[in-house]
Structures are given as C-alpha cells and as structure tokens.
Amino acid sequence: MITGQATQLKGRYDVVVAGGGPAGLAAALGAREQGAQRILVVDREREAGGILWQCIHAGFGLHHFKEELTGPEYAQRYLEQVLEKEIDVLTDTFVADIDRDRRLKLMTGREGIRVIEANAVVLAMGARERTRGAVRIPGTRPAGVMTAGFAQKVVNLHGYLPGRRAVILGSGDIGLIMARRLTLEGIEVAGVFEIMPHANGLSRNIVQCLHDFDIPLYLSHTVAEIHGRERVEKVTVAPVDAQMRPIPGKAWDIDCDTLLLSIGLIPENELSRQLGVRLDPVTNGPIVSSGMETTMDGVFAGGNVVHIHDLVDFVSQESLLAGRNAGLYVTGNRPPTDNIRLSPGENVAYCVPHTISSERPHTIYLRVRRPMEKCSIRFGTVLEKKLSYVFPAEMVTLTVQPKFLENFHGDALSVDVVAR
Amino acid sequence: MNYDVTIIGGGVIGCAIARELARYRLGVILLEKECEVGFGTSKSNSGIIHAGHHSATDTLKGRLEWAGNQKWDSLCAALGFGFERIGELTVAFTPEERATLERLLTSGRAKGVSGLEIWEPARLRREEPNLSHDIIAALHAPTAGVVNPYEACFTLIESARANGVHVAVDYRVEVLSRGEDGWTVKGTGPDVASRFVVNAAGIFADKVAAMAGVGTFRIHPRKGEEYLLDKRLRGFVKRIIFPLPTATSKGILVIPTFDGTLMVGPTAHETEDRSDITTTLPGSDEVFESVRRVVPGISERDCIAEFAGLRAAAEGEDFIIGPTAAKGFINVAGIQSPGLTAAPAIAEMVAEILADEGMDMVARDDFVPAVPPHVRFATLPLDEQVRLAGDDPRYGRIVCRCEHISERETVDAIHRGAHTLDGIKFRTRAGMGRCQGGFCSWRCMELLARERGVPITEITKRGGGSWVIRRREDGEKP
Amino acid sequence: MTDDRISHYLCIGCPLGCRLEVEEDARDTIVEVRGWSCKKGERYGRQEHTDPRRMVTTTVGIEGAALARLPVKTSQPVPKGQVTEVCRLLRTLKVSAPVRMGDVVLADIAGSGADVVATRDLS
Questions:
Q1: What pLDDT, on the 0 to 100 scale, is given for residue B432?
Q2: Is B50 among the residues known to form the active site?
Q3: C43 touches chain A (CB under 8 A)
Q4: Which of B28, B132, B227, B367 lies deepest, with the highest CB count within 10 Å?
Q5: Which residues, 6 or more positions from B268, have their beta carbon under 8 angstroms from its beta carbon?
C-alpha cells in the first residue's frame, strides 16, 4: 500500500490540495511543475487515490496515458509520480475548515488537530453519490438499499457481497459497471431502471456491462416502491408518464434483496461553501476562471468538485490546470485575468470554465440538456464545430484557440448546441 | 427473576417510566421488542416539546402536556440529550384564522402557558423573513422546544440502567398470566415475574392489554410521514411553524430540529397495518404542497431523507393511563401527540398510581440523576478540540464527514449501547447527514465489528433480519 | 446490398462509442467495416463480428494485506464466452502479500492464453 506521511506539519505551505483523488494528485503535480515548493495533499482515506482503487474495471487513461488502464493502475501511476516529486501526502486526515486567510483546519487520525497556512489552495474534494432521499422513493426503509459506490467498495476492496438478487435504479456508469460486477460475482441482476428516456452512462458500458450479460435496461421506468421491513424483499417498478410519475396500472413487482442506486453524483462543496466561494447553481460547483481559480483569490478547484465528469482523464487534465495556476499564483507569475464570459445558450446546461481569455487556448467542457443528432456547437459567431450526436450523459469538450478570438471584441460569448 | 415492576415497551414513555421508577427501591425490568430502545414510534417522531396551549384543558393529555413541558429543562440538564426551547409560531392567513389565534391565546393563558403573544406582520418579517407574506398574523409561544427524541430514550434508559433497572431487548411479549402474587410474562426471552405490569407498548398496547384480559380499547395507528431537508437550509426558519388546520390539510409543520436540519411533516392518515411505516408519493406531495404555502422557499429538491412513524392513537383520542380490572396491570396507552412532551409527567403519574395500588415506594438515597456527558466534538471550540484530540487521537479521526463525527464519539456510542448502524446514527448523527451514510456506513460497521468482537457480516441496520452485507462463500453457485 | 448482410456494433474501444456497421458478402467474408473514427474501431468491428473478446477485470483474495481483495486483469482479452468462467475460477484464488502491480498471479487462465496480473501494489 502506498501512503505518504507529511514530514512536517508546521509553518506555511505554498499549495495545499484538499482531496487526494485523481483531481488532487494531478493538481499537486501541476503546482510542482510551475515551481511551487512546499506542496501538501490531504486525504481523509487511509491511502490517497480516491475512488479509483475500487474502480477495478478498465477504461481509464486513454487520453492521458494513451493506453487503457484499470482504476488502480491509473491511481498508482499518479501516486508514484506525486511521491517522486516529493509532494507531501497526508492521509487519514480530513480538512474540516478553510478560512479566507487560507488557513486550513485539519483533523488527523494520528496527530489530532492541526491548523496550517497555505499561499494557495486547490479544492479537489470530488463528489458524493445521490441517495434515496434525493429522489424520494416511496415505501419502507429496509437494509439493502445502497448506493452503487458503496456496493462497489464492499465487493472490490473488502470482498463481501451486498446481497443475492439486485435491482439497479439509474443507468449512471457506476450502476452499469456494478451490474456487470455483481453478475460476475454470482449475484443475479434483475434489471437496470432509468427514469429518463435515454441512458445516463456511456454507450460502451451499456454494451459491455448490460448487453454482454443479457441484463435488461428499462428506459422511462423507475422504482415506484420499496418493500420489506428489515431487509429489501421486493421492489415495485413501473414506466413513468411525461411528468416522470410512475403509471400505477403498468407497475410490476420484482423479488430482490438489494436495490442499488446509481442516480447521479453531487459535487462535494461543503468546504467551498464554508469558505464562501461562489457556486454555479447548475453544476453545484465553484464558478471558475480559465485558470480554474474560484471567485476567491488564491483558491483554485478542479475535477468533480467543479462539475461531474464522465472520464477521469478529464478530471486529471482539468485539475492539472488548476494546480499549474496555483503554482503560477504562488510564484508570482499569474497570467492576466480573463476578459470573456461564457454563457450557456441553446441546449447547453453549463460550460466550464465560466470565463476565458482571448490571449490563450482553452479547453471548454460542457453538457447538453437533451440528446441531439447531427448538430453543431456554436461559440458565438467565432467558431462552429460539427458533432454527429450529443447526449446529456456524455460531456462535450471543445478546444478554442486564440486565433478564433482575434476579431472578437465583446465581453460575453454565448455557447449553443443547435441542429444542423 | 422476580421483579416489582415489568415495563412493556421501550419507547420514550417506557424509558421515562423506567428512569422515574429507578428513583425508588424497586426491582424494575423493561422489555423491548426491537433490538434497541426508542426504535419504534419514538424514533420516527417530530421531536417537538409542545408549548402547552394546543390541547384542551378538560383532557388528560391537555393537563399532562403543560406539566410535561415544564420538566424537560431539568431532564436535559441531567441527561444531556439535544433539547432547546426555540419557540413556535402558529400562523394565520385569513381574519377567521386570526380569530382562532386569539382563542388559542386566551385558553393558553388560562392554562398558565407563559409568553404567548400575537405577532403582527412587521415583527414576523423581521423574525422569520422566509415565511409567506400572505400570513397576516402569528401566535408566538416561546415555551415550545425541539428535542432529539431517540437521544432522550437512549439517555433515559442509560440513566435507568445505571440506577439498577434491567433492560431486555429483542423481547417480544407473547403471554401474560396472573398468578397468586403477580404476573408472569412469557415471550422471546426468559420468563419474567413481577407484581406489577406497566403496559407502555405503544401501537401494540391494545394487544398487550388483551393478553392481560383487559382488552377494553383499540389502538388505531395513524401514520405520519416526515421529510428531512439538506443542511443548506439551516436557519431558513428558526421556530417551529404550525399552520392552522384547513379543509385540505391537518397541518404540516416546519420543524428546525435540534441539530439544525429542517424537517417537514407529518401527514396524518389512519392505517390498519401496524407495521406500515412506508412513505408514499401522495404523502410527499401533501407535505411539500402544504409547506410551500407557509414557507415558499422550501422544495422537494432539498429532501435528503424521509421516514414515517405510527401514532398510537386510541379511540376517544385521549391518553389511557391508570389501573385496570386486572389487578397489578396498569395501562399507559393511547399516547399520541403530545405524548413526547407529556412523557416526564406521565412517568411521575405512573409512580403515583403504583403507590396508590399498594406498591411501597421508598426513595433510594443513592439515585444518580445524571449520566456522563456526551462529547459533541464538532460543536466544541477549537482549543478544546485540540486538547481532546491531543489526549485521544481518535477524536481527530473523522468517521462521518457530513456531520463531522469522530471515531471516538462512535466508539463511545457503541459502548453506551449502540448495537446497530441505526443505533450509532441516532446517537451520534453519523449517517444522518446529506450523504446518508454513503461514506461512513463502512467505517461504522468496521467499528461495530471491532468493538463488539463480531464478524462484520453480523452487523445490521437495525437488528433482526436487517443485514447489510454477506460473505462471499455462501453465494457461490455450484 | 441487403441489410441482412450488415451487422451493427457499438465500439467499446473508447468512450466515443462509435456505431459500427460490418458488411459481409454472400460467403460470410467481411467486405467493409464502417462508422469508426480510428483504426482500433475498424479492428474492433472485425474482431467483434468474428470472435468477440473481452478484457476481464475482477479481484482475487489476498492474505496479509491491508485490504481483503487484490484487483486483477487479464493480460489480453479472452473469448467473450469465457468471461464468466474466468471470474468463477478467480473467485476462490488467494495470493499472499506483498504483490506488485503487473505481477502474474495466475498464468494462462482457463487455457485462454491470457495471464492474470495484479493491477496494483498491495502489502
């Protein structure tokens, strides 16, 4: 097991990274690359690497490492780089608070409570899974209703099984991956139920996790009721109407002892809120500049804490940028501020970053609100990119070169996805 | 073993009675059918200490409500559960409703409820800016409070135990028989013999009374659904908000719980099924539609958890407390709202009844009213935290990150009686926050297994068949 | 050209998820693979049509480590029909710590020619 231990917890750090998952590790490397000296990554688990350790499936690293890796391989490669660069990693430690002077209150399992100071902070707390309460599934509250991520941890790290027969609500990638995982562990998966008319996970996961094992996917269906007093005994499932309400006459019961929830992730922004950085109500993450700086001076953010990504590669890429800019900030080489605001327009739920500069190239991440075929992303009138299809479940990325902005003199650009 | 008194039922009523009787030189045992006390109606409760002016003075519950209300401060001082008098507002939208407020004010004052006053819109906007601007007046009652009802149960029983009361959990009473000098209780544990039986069996009180041959009443459970909202809304409403009953709603409340989470509910629907603690789509709609009228900023999108509980209402709607035709069998039944508020007064009343019925009530001189204080680490000032964590680094190791609950607090909860994930959750709040145990459940299970010395597969959510995980081997297909 | 000579696949080579068409002639010989965005996609279409294979990732037991399970993968894709069997065989396998990422924990599993290798260090 790889765990680093901070050699010293006194004094001032150049950059402190809250969270040691893929975002935090990439951010730390980015800060080092730009010359930050004392860098600390804080993680609350027993080892850094985040959720990747339990994501034992392949599909990571195609962009970053140019080969397909499993989650643990991706985590280990990153962690090795971080330790090689002599970045302090403090595990079993929880960032309980950050104040405006960038003082961090750390709760450590080994050394009690420490307060440290940072010249720059990178928020990399990742995301948490939405739970039953968020979708208010009617019925009883027995054991056996759990998030897909909890089941994944139990199975892949600790070697226990969540039940014998499972139903999965939500077609997010973790749910699809777990459908296959449970099947391979000998647990019967009766079906995946998705309230939306389209799947929420990557198409490749529908194929290799569901089709390969003949697990049915029911679109426009939901779990209408949970039964069982002590442990789940069955669930009632039903198609939904246009208002997403179960249609009672068409409901049926499925015997199962486990209900896995894969109903989305929420950026984990308690610290950001305590700190007072402004959040985007659509992403639930901080509003960020093209350098991934939040609305608070010297506080940067990257990865799922900013917006939910489909691919860890993009988490790393975005967080590397956040870390680089934190490094530039502490070495006094901060680039000029942005001059163009991006505003989500037609069929665009959000774009990140929220502002850009006409001086530099940028990667823009965005999500559409509804699926569309044969469409274009329009970036004001300066750029248009054709796409064969878009899905809300698949993040769209777009690179904007400064040359496109040469003749643009406004201060805001609308980003639209429109039919061709 | 022979006891003086057997208490059937470990809800807040049974627990309060147990702790009250612990003051005397008596042999007392409490039998609870769930795996921990407080796991029935008392856990699924609004947690309100009512101000004292709502129920009529000519009822038993009306008298015990105000008497009980007065006793919570000293109980809290001794036992340290979460309790605060945050006050309540009953709101009026129409001149007719305003007239009802005036009537409540008059009758409340007649009862002796202190501090009642009517707030006009200007005051209301200042104190509670997020209430609907359609509200034309509100009756403020500062004597109302909120309590963590499960904590009250846990600490009452902890105190009772410390003073010699025996407790048997997972004990479902099946047969009651009257002999020469008392009662024998048979059930899912060793037989229990005692002179007196106190029936505090909540929604099963009529069944237990029937076992004693005095089935003179029937409990008709009334279900209440409640919805907990994200902590982001902390402080959005500062007092308990009561609408007046309308034709369409019996009154859905907004409750700022002791821990700062807003809770909305409860519904009130009769159910035949005594195990029906389901939440429903119509129930959720009813709650949120009703609440929006009073606090427009609250939405179902803020919901993090929901639950339902059964009120043990009896015909006639009043409490049924007293001796019965079966000598030595005492009913404490039909305890619906404001039962929690009245609980300490009910407990004292039961002690008086026992004395009247011939029990020799000699006060113990070694009664210890207080339990050791519970550390709520997250609420302590930084230097105090640093000191505590310096002495025991387990205070520095966070188990529940939503509520900032440490390993030490979790371990303490286990040693104070938590057997299950819910037991930890309701003692420490670990798992009660916005991630609903997604992150901490595993840690809590590991700690339960370690501290109790059992395999992790034996850890349950709330006892019985509520297992969480299983071993791999028994899942192998041949 | 008739449609029954065309099979449809969704490429699982990367998150793009290209929708592939594999066209055969009357003698079941592939004439063309369409719809790919990279050469890997074209290869995937041919492979999937003739001999579908999958990389297997699962866990094996590990003794003497901080965790109970060691994540592993097959060194190369195995025939799709063998995936379940491979996992079943590995369910009861137990290794001893320490293990390094890339260590072979079982060679040539189920005669597939693929080795099973650890995907992390664990001690």
A1: 86
A2: yes
A3: no
A4: B227
A5: B222, B223, B224, B250, B311
